[in-house]
Design goal:
Elements lengths: L1 E10 L3 H9 L5 E5 L10 E4 L2 E4 L10 H9 L6 E5 L2 E5 L2 E4 L11 H12 L9 H26 L20 H9 L9 E5 L4 H8 L7 E3 L3 E5 L4 E4 L2 E10 L3 H8 L11 E10 L9 E3 L9 E4 H5 L5 E9 L7 H14 L8 E9 L8 H15 L3 E3 L1 H4 L6 H16 L2
Parallel strand pairs: 1-2, 1-12, 2-9, 6-14, 12-18
Antiparallel strand pairs: 3-4, 5-8, 6-7, 10-11, 11-12, 13-16, 13-17, 14-15, 15-16
The structure holds flavin-adenine dinucleotide.
Flavin-adenine dinucleotide binds next to helix 1, strand 2, helix 11 and helix 12.
């Protein structure tokens, strides 16, 4: 085993690791990425003329300077700016997203039930996500959409999640908002428009890579253990001495690598199994993605890449939520079920499947609870005192966007280089 000494060791070449490494302004750096390519969850696959992300990744930049920074570093920037069109399928009908603001699009009886339950809802103590939904939206909105949809997505009992499990990504609306929206529809929810690079999410990854010193990236090299006292990491290739370690791998895995004891039950999450499917001809038009709350349908969401790119053949991403760490799914059987369900909901109608790609994102949506918030904060602080910083969506065990990852990584680079 060879021995390397660097000031900064970075675990992970996804958005967070690359953003940190590129902002550091130091080449006393080694970034280890376990996979053979960079990008983490923002990788893109190109096959049979289709462009697929690991799952539909669309971007809503709140800081225009970050988007500018990325676009300036793209070789051939073709950025699509899209007005979002998304819908929810409820009993063979379609309602605009978010459901709670568009109940007037339901059949009259359902609309009245939702409206009355919303008006006469009984506020209850919001001890968890489930209680928060019932307390704020009333029974019918919850039972028709919010509960079954989120249970399919998170693959858990919603009573086990924190009331703020989705943070700013949850589209809140009170009775007055709903009434105003019925009278004069405003935006249809969060992130009304989004941008997307024609080359897929990986274009943002390649842009971030531009500022990382050449030669400091080691692909296909996994960090397997960390000696916190000695400041030594073992990879599957060598021993690395470091002063500062910045990790973007899932926090529970970092704790295991560092030999820190923790309660596994605090670190629950779902997995998302994604099928990217390319067909021989066009399918439904004028829609970017559809939510499926019905429990009989295997997936919770289907997105239409072809309607974003304006392509002539239907190109889908299909997402299924599963409990993390359960029995591995039988990929062939699941694909058959997905295709059958796509026929049931009318997306596939005599189409021929040309090519497909499958990936399991583990973890995908972490289960944010009071215990996880507390434990992550305490353990991250304790590690930081020893020169180990855990960042990113999974390093911070949270729900966030790639822009949030970049903001966090740049801020850490600024703090560490301030002295
Ligand atoms: C289904 C889904 C849809 C999403 N959609 C959007 C969206 O539309 N817009 C948006 O902004 N965000 C979206 N996100 C969030 C976005 O994917 C993440 O915020 C972002 O990709 C996280 O980047 P990261 O670098 O923090 O983590 P990751 O992408 O997980 O990168 C971590 C990297 O570390 C590597 N690694 C792990 N362990 C080791 C080890 N021991 N040694 C070496 N390397 C290691 C991994 O291989 C990986 O490359 C979505 C997420 C999911 C799950």
């Amino acid at each position: 085993m060879t021995r390397t000494r660097v000031k900064y060791l970075v675990i992970g070449g996804g958005i967070s690791g690359l953003a940190f490494a590129g902002r550091l302004g130091s080449d006393d750096l080694l970034l280890c990425e376990a996979e053979q390519e960079l990008g983490g969850y923002c990788r893109t696959v190109r096959r049979s003329g289709f462009t697929w992300d690991y799952s539909g990744h669309f971007f809503h930049f709140r800081h225009p300077e970050i988007e500018r920074y990325l676009v300036e570093r793209m070789d051939d920037p073709e950025i699509l700016r899209i007005e979002r069109r998304s819908a929810i399928r409820i009993r063979d009908r379609y309602v605009d997203f978010p459901f709670q603001k568009n109940i007037h699009q339901l059949p009259k009886e359902d609309f009245l039930a939702c409206l009355l339950d919303l008006y006469f809802r009984e506020p209850r103590e919001e001890r968890n996500f489930y209680d928060m939904l019932f307390s704020r939206f009333g029974r019918s909105i919850c039972e028709m959409f919010l509960i079954p949809y989120n249970e399919k997505l998170y693959a858990t009992d919603l009573r086990l999640l924190d009331r703020d499990a989705m943070g700013r990504f949850f589209p809140h609306a009170d009775f007055d908002d709903v009434m105003r929206h019925i009278r004069a529809p405003t935006g249809t929810g969060y992130n009304q428009t989004f941008t997307y690079a024609r080359g897929g999410a990986v274009e943002y990854v390649k842009a971030l890579q531009k500022d990382v010193p050449p030669g400091s990236i080691a692909l296909g090299e996994r960090v397997v253990s960390v000696d916190l006292d000695g400041k030594i990491a073992e990879t599957d290739r060598r021993t690395v001495e470091f002063d500062v370690l910045v990790s973007s791998c899932p926090f529970d895995r970092l704790l295991s690598m560092c030999g820190v004891e923790f309660d596994r039950d605090v670190y629950r999450a779902n997995e998302v199994e994604v099928f990217n499917l390319g067909f021989d001809r066009k399918g439904p038009e004028g829609i970017h993605w559809i939510y499926y709350p019905e429990r009989e349908i295997s997936f919770y969401r289907v997105g239409f890449y072809d309607n974003i790119f304006g392509d002539p053949r239907m190109s889908l991403y299909v997402e299924l939520g599963r409990p993390r760490g359960g029995t591995p799914a039988d990929a062939d059987a699941t694909l058959a079920r997905v295709l059958e369900d796509l026929r049931r909901v009318g997306v596939v109608d005599g189409h021929e499947l040309v090519d497909f790609h499958r990936v399991v994102l583990d973890p995908a949506y972490v289960h944010i609870t009071e215990a996880s918030i507390r434990d992550v904060r305490e353990k991250r602080e304790a590690l930081a005192e020893r020169g180990v910083y855990s960042i990113g969506r999974y390093g911070a065990w949270t729900y966030c966007s790639i822009e949030d990852n970049i903001v966090e990584a740049w801020e850490l680079a600024r703090q560490l280089t301030r002295a």
